[in-house]
Design brief:
Distance between the termini: 40 Å
Largest sheet: 3 strands, antiparallel
Strand content: 15-25%
Radius of gyration: 16 Å
Shape: globular
Number of domains: 1
Order of helices and strands: HHHHEHEEH
Mean pLDDT: 82
């Protein structure tokens, strides 16, 4: 791959670079978890023991539109068993008109 192809690949996937620059830091990942997880799940997790898995589990066809994040931690009451929290995030270049319907479609 020549230099120009590499630069265009970087620009094409800039959202991934931004995402990983932010969420590869455990302190930011903990903040994200606190923002998105329900309180009953948060109470059960040990957020002092966070490791972000930098491996993507997406196929090539989905990488342009999605980013995935796997966080390894443990439960507070069972520190020997690992817990994996997986997020699939969709990149948007626009504000959707009816996000609730879009989410429902994904869930179905």
């Amino acid at each position: 791959m020549n230099k120009q192809d590499e630069q265009s690949q970087e620009i094409k996937n800039i959202q991934d670079k931004f995402f990983w620059d932010i969420y590869s830091r455990p302190v930011n990942t903990v903040g994200f978890l606190k923002d998105v997880l329900p309180s009953n799940i948060l109470k059960a997790l040990d957020l002092t023991h966070i490791k972000v898995d930098k491996k993507s589990y997406l196929s090539e066809e989905y990488k342009e539109h999605y980013t995935d994040l796997v966080v390894k931690t443990r439960f507070k009451d069972n520190t020997k068993e690992p817990v994996f929290v997986y997020f699939l995030l969709e990149h948007k270049s626009y504000i959707p008109q009816r996000p609730a319907f879009q989410l429902l479609r994904y869930m179905v």
